[in-house]
Every structure is written in structure tokens, then in C-alpha cells.
Design brief:
Layout (H helix, E strand, L loop, with lengths): L5 E2 L6 E2 L3 E2 L16 H4 L16 H4 L20 E2 L3 H4 L5 H21 L17 H8 L14 H10 L7 H9 L11 H16 L7 H31 L2 H15 L20 H4 L22 E3 L7 E5 L7 E9 L4 E9 L4 E7 L16 E9 L3 E10 L6 E9 L2 E9 L7 E10 L2 E11 L2 H7 L7 E3 L2 E2 L2
Parallel strand pairs: 5-13
Antiparallel strand pairs: 1-2, 3-4, 6-15, 7-10, 7-12, 8-9, 8-11, 11-14, 12-13, 14-15, 16-17
Length: about 475
Amino acid sequence: MARGGTLNSTDGRLRHPKRITMTRPRRPWRGLAGPGPADQDSTLPAVPEPQDLPDSVSDAVEPLPAPSPEPASTPMTQTPVTVISPAPLTGSAPQSSVSRSAGRGRRLMSRLLAKSGLTSHRQPPVDLTGWTVAEYLVERDRDKNDPFVQRRAGHEAVSLINRMSGVLPAGAVPVARAITDAAPPVGERVVPALRDVLDRYLPETLQAFNAEALPELRVRAEHLLTTQLDLLYDATAALLHAQVDDDDRDLQVQAAFLHERFAGMAPGRLDLAPLSGTTSRSRTAAVYVPDLPSAMRRPSLAMPPVEGRTHVRHDMQPVVLFGGDRAGNTRFKLRMALPKGHVATVGVVSETLQGVVCFDQTSNRRFFTLRRVTGFPAAQVDLGLRLNTFDVRRFMVYASTTQQADPTSTVLFMRRGSEQADLPTLLTNDPRVPLTVIATGVDVQGGIMVRNESTLFPDLRTACTAFGFDQVAWLDQDTPVI
């Protein structure tokens, strides 16, 4: 038997050793990662049938001469070829095919997860602090694979006004919020000039106000601030009228006026020098300011007081005025309707004319709360509070709930004598934002102006900070020191 190979007696094929040294180059095998040995037989040298085998196996492998008699001393001059038996190849695949298969599998899994409502990559959670109920409902219905978060235009200006409401003049807050009310609902287009007012001119005007100025400087600073807000309000009203009339020329005129009037403002421009004959450091202070009567109110804000019962929505005409002075009726009755078995807390945070912050709240029980007789099948319970606004400068009404399956729609009823305002709102029952600031009120000339806020917060402390109730010590996020 020659050293070049061994004969398999079962199938008559010639089995070569694992490594063979050749004296001339051979064509390499193809299809090593192919389907099986059937394709490899075409590249092997022809082997005669068993009955035609020669006497010597070495004659059958004539193309493969015998190795050198001294292989150890003879250097190898040809490239060694590794012959792989067919058996292991039937269960193996090239590495590139494995990588491609894994990539296709991951893409297929991602598509299946997307169709099922899940995501293979978690998106960062959205901070819902300070969101309105309308924004929360839009976010709740948003496709989780959509990265675009929609909020109402001017929401940053609204947050700034609320934070500064404790230091701004009493007449500045209603005018500033009236400007932000000009923003369209969530998801609707905003004209560029109105966006400049909400995102640039109004915040810069508020930030320029120096709340820590000396008393002799604060009077003129408040006067300048209210005058600037009046100009912004007039320009915003003109923008809205031009938008309704679809007059492009009026829009361009108002946009040019706003840019010329407010584009040069910078923070600190309302930090005024003494009212003597010295030259002011500010160009804004050099502008002539008419001496308006102190009792003058915005014509648009001089709304008639509520008579009888009115409905106040948070996204459309959210303000109502309870007329009268401090000598009249100042006692409010607050009542919030809830489904029976729904546990909630209703509270009021108020600030007196002397700057003292007071708290009052009440809660119900799941099984021991009296049912209100309404004549309808569903059971209803009420949570009630009383508020005396005799020496109150401003107040905030809030409600918080325990975790439930779905949000709860409810109404806060505010009644004073024969006047009543119904403020519809939403209790989210969401552990991220379980507290809803339903309404705020401010003492203005002619009465108490109440606004339906319907704004969400994670706890009472965050809500109080967001609305400027800063002079409070806290035991925890929901418990003030009283």
C-alpha cells in the first residue's frame, strides 16, 4: 500500500490523509461551505470502480506521486492544503451568513415589537410637571414610537408668569396671562409674529423687572412693566384680528412693530435709577411713558362680573370675575363632585395681604362618605371647603387622588351668594402627576378674578413653588409646616 492514501473497501473511494504534500499546485476545492459532499465530488480526481482497480494503489493515484524519502530534511516548497472531510460541513455555515441571519432576526423582532405596541429600546420618560390637562391627553394618546412631544405655544412664558406671580404687581399677572391665552390649542399652527411675542418679547419683559428694587425705584419699575405689558397686549390683539381677517399686510406691520419695539430689550432694562434728574443707564427708561391713571384697567380685562351661573373651561375663555369689594360678600363655597368610592383630597393655598401663606384641605373615605342625592343612577359624593377672601391677595385650589385605572372627569363648583362658576377639570390618577391645580384667584380692582388652570404636578410642594408660594417650610413633599 502506498503512503499517498488508503482504500475504503465499503464504497471503493480513496480516502486521503488529513494533510498531503504536493509537488505541483492544484486547483483548490470550491464550495467548502456548500450544501454537502455531492458538490465536492466534481472537484476530486476520478477514481476507478472497485472491479477496475489496479494491482497497486499507487498506480491509481498517478497524479499524486509518493512523498520524498527524507521529508524531514527536504524543505516544503508547496502550499499545504487542508482537506476537510464532508461530514462536519453538513452542520456548519460561513461566519458572514451567521451575521447576516442574526441581523435579519433582530430587524424582524424590532418590527414585531413595534406592531405589538412595545419597543425594543426604551424612550426616556416624559416629565409631565406643569403640563395642562389638554397637553396630558394629547401625550396620553401619542404613539410611543413618535419622538415628537406636543405642547401648547407659550407654555414656558406661562410657567414664568406663575413663578413670578408672588412678586409681580397685582395688575400685571392678569394682563400677562391674557397675552398667553392668545396661543392656539395644542398641535395647531402659530404665526411667527405671535410666537415671537410668546417665546421672546413677553419673557424678556418679565425677566427685566427687578422685584428686589428699593421702594422708591419699585413704583416706577412697576409702572414701566405694566406699560410694556399693555403694549404687548395691544399688539397681540391686533395680530389676532389680522389673523382672523387674513390680512397679510397687517400681520407684517404688527410683526415689524414688535421687532422694532422689543427686539433690543435685554434682562435688567427695567432696573431703574432713582427718579431724580440723573441719566438712566437704560434706553428703555429714556422712552417716554405716559402718566396713566392708577385706577385704569385694561379695557379687555374689564369684563363684567359673573351673574348667575357660568361655565369656565381651561382651554377657552378660562377667566371669570366675581365682582364686589372687600366690604361685600367674601365667602366662597367650594365643592367638587366625585364618583362614590373614589378617594381624593381637595385643598386651598392662600396668601394674605401681609404675605402669610395658609393651607386648608379635606379628604373623603372610600366607604363612609355620604352619598349626594341627585336622582340619577350613579352614586356621587362631594368634597367641600370654605374660603374667605376678605384679606386674601391670591389663592390656589388643588385636588389629588390615589392611583386608579383611568382618569376621572370632575367639576369644581365655586359659589359666592347667587354667583357660581363651574370649572371642569381632570384628575389623572397617574402616579407621575397625581395632583391637579384646578383654579387660581387674584384680587384685582373690582373683585376676584378666577382662572381655570387644570395644571398637573407630582406633589403639593412642587405646585406651590410653581405658583410662587415660596415662603413655606415643608416636612415632606406633601406636608407643609403650619
